[in-house]
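pinging the channel bc i need a second pair of eyes. not urgent but kinda urgent?? the chain im working w is below, pasted from the shared doc
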Amino acid sequence: MTAISDVYLYALIPVISILVGGVTGLFTTPSGAFKSSVLHFAGGVVFSVVAVELLPDIIKNHKPIEVGIGFSLGIVTMLLVKFFAEKFEEKQENKTTKNALPIGLLVALGIDLAIDGLLLGVGFAAGNTEGILLSVALALETFSLGLAVVLACINYNFTKQKNLFILLVLGLIFFSGAILGITLLSGLSQEWLELVLSFGLAALLFLVTEELLTEAHEEKETLLQTAMFFVGFLIFLLIGMIA
């Protein structure tokens, strides 16, 4: 059993990663190919954690009602997040001013990172291996998010200090969600845990198909970038078998 202090350390990995991704964007100019490769790899990793670790734990407990309810709630929640995020972004695009905060983008990312933090709690509730693998997978995602935030804020003429502050706030949102998830999920009954795991399953699948891969496909792809999805899946499939 992983000590609770160690769990919190694993929760810090994605926080550090979002800062590293942001700093990479601040001091370098990453190519579209690099960003696409990172997003493909992260998508493969998250999908591998779902298929290899999370889904088998859900199936073996044989609670179809809880799974149906949890999965449906997860999809509805993520669809609502996507709907309102797009509305925020449309409003922001219509009234963008110099040095103004991109509120729509930041609200959408804040909600996404809070859910991701809770999902880390879902992973550790399912088991230590699931939690550790999900921590690494989410670190790859938050790296790309940190990079995307800085690149998106280029048009707003922010100072490096302001960009770093935004990244730090987003990292704290993730960590707060992770602490909440780890704390609350540890004492759940089997029925409620199954419901929460199913919710997380739906959210992670949505994350891969509607966010990571959608954003990755915005860049012109090569076969190498496409292959990075399967490389990510294979690596964590093998790690899951060995761990």
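so Residues 49 and 133 are 7 Å apart (CA to CA). and The chain has one domain: 4-25+32-242. — does that match what u expected or am i reading it wrong
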